[in-house]
Amino acid sequence: MSSAAPRATGHDQGEDRLWSVEDHLEDILATVRPLEPIELNLLDAQGCVLVEDITVPVSLPPFDNSSMDGYAVRVADVAGAGEEFPAALEVVGDVAAGASEPPHVGPGQAARIMTGAPLPPGAETVVPVEWTDGGLGHGPVDRMRASSQAPEGARGQVQVYRPAGPRAHVRAAGSDVRAGDRALAAGTLLGPPQIGLLAAIGRGRVTVRPRPRVVVLSTGSELVQPDERLAHGQIYDSNSFALTAAARDAGAIAYRVGAVADDPETLRSTIEDQLVRADLMVTTGGVSVGAYDVVKEALAHVADADEPGSGVEFRKLAMQPGKPQGFGSIGPDHTPLLALPGNPVSSYVSFELFVRPAIRTLMGLPDVHRPRATARLAAEQALTSPKGRRQFLRARYADGSVTPVGGASSHLVAALARADALIVVPEDTETVEPGTEVEVVRLG
Q: Is residue 271 left, alpha or beta, with left meaning phi > 0 and alpha meaning psi from -120 to 50?
């Protein structure tokens, strides 16, 4: 299944142009296409997006049923019931959940009924067991005895100490949804409540757009996996873990590839091997202007070797952090690829702005963006921002105000872990004073 429209780009066409954030994102979203629908079993469809309206075939509940454990009775028989003069009714049987032939309740009679059991014919209301003696003759009780321990509870006499109005403690047929109603609309993301509703109306399979498969690959000979020993000049690979987790949080099935050394041939081979399980590929590192920025070199060869229409373009964006970016499609299926910078904050901010919307587009969601809000800047001093760049600053958002955490440096991972929002400083703004209203991207 193809998830990207063919692109006819060169790998370096965008390097002389300074792209805006909007133009880069617009190019991505114009290229990425929602995945083709498939039919899945309910539990396999969790996290997927419906492509069809779901109509209720049978009302919920399908019959009048009790919302309490108690006794199904006629209203007139308990109208004058009280503590001093309880109503004494003949118990004619039990009505358990799933009962197919409940007993008929006539004048002066009651049927012991369980929560969810159908209201028996002749009954008009339900008296909770706590308003009765439970058929034991010793005053009010707080629960029913199990039928296996008290078979006599289904027969004999029950004392009722309080009246109940018509249809008290009765769930009416169709009070949840009625047959013919729309249960779920196309475009609905299926979570546990939606899966439960589908099961409740008898749908065992649904047609959805599958969760996209995202492969995350980090580059750098200096990267070491967690739990391994660090040598001089080495650091732990955090980007691939953070971005894989972010892709899963966005709704994807994400696969993490261990860090690839700064060798174009190895990187190109790894990317080609991973295409078989990717609806979207994400790389981090190697997209700047250094001598060892191998993603550019490797993807240039991939583009030359692929079918016509493929290609990856490397760009400079008017933003901070995250100025160097790459985007295109590779392989015979024109798999979209987003190449992100290697600094941890740059890569994560880039993911939130560009990769997450691409994942949500592949899923077929109607709204692919993080929510935004306006908040008052709570800071001890003014924020500064480079002219001509849109700056995204890590922050904490609460009660209509936002507080920066950490500085503008793109290597401060600890500050990123404390942030739940990004402050957006426009390109034409160089200073933001405390108390100023600012735009905020909500991350949580």
A: alpha
What pLDDT digit, counting tens, does each position of 254-273 carry?
Answer: 999 988 888 888 888 899 99
What is the arithmetic mean of pLDDT over 226-230? 87
Q: Which amino acid is at 100?
A: S
Are the C-beta atoms of residues 328 and 9 closer than 8 Å to each other?
yes
The alpha carbon dihedral of 135, 141, 142, 145 has a sign of negative
Burial of 321 (0-12, 13-18, 19+ CB in 10 A): buried
Q: How confident is the model at residue 148 (pLDDT cuts 50, 70, 90)?
A: low
Cα angle, residue 211 at apex, residues 206 and 216 outer, rounded to 5°: 170
Cα atoms in the Cβ-side hemisphere of radius 13 Å centred on 350? 33
Give the integer Cα–Cα distance in Å for 328 and 362.
15
Nearest to 419 by CA among 406, 433, 410: 406
Name residues whose C-beta falls within 8 Å of residue 160's C-beta, 6 or more positions apart in sequence. 71, 73, 78, 81, 86, 87, 88, 89, 110, 127, 131, 132
How are beta strands 319-320 and 390-398 bridged, if at all?
A: parallel
Cα four-point dihedral sign 225, 230, 232, 236:
positive
Write a three-state SS string for 22-76: HHHHHHHHHHECCCCCEEEECHHHCCCEECCCEECCCCECCCCEECCCEEEECHH
As to burial, measured by CB atoms within 10 angstroms (0-12 exposed, 13-18 middle, 19+ buried), residue 44 is: middle
pTM here is 0.84
- DSSP letter at 121? T
Tokens of 173: 């047929």
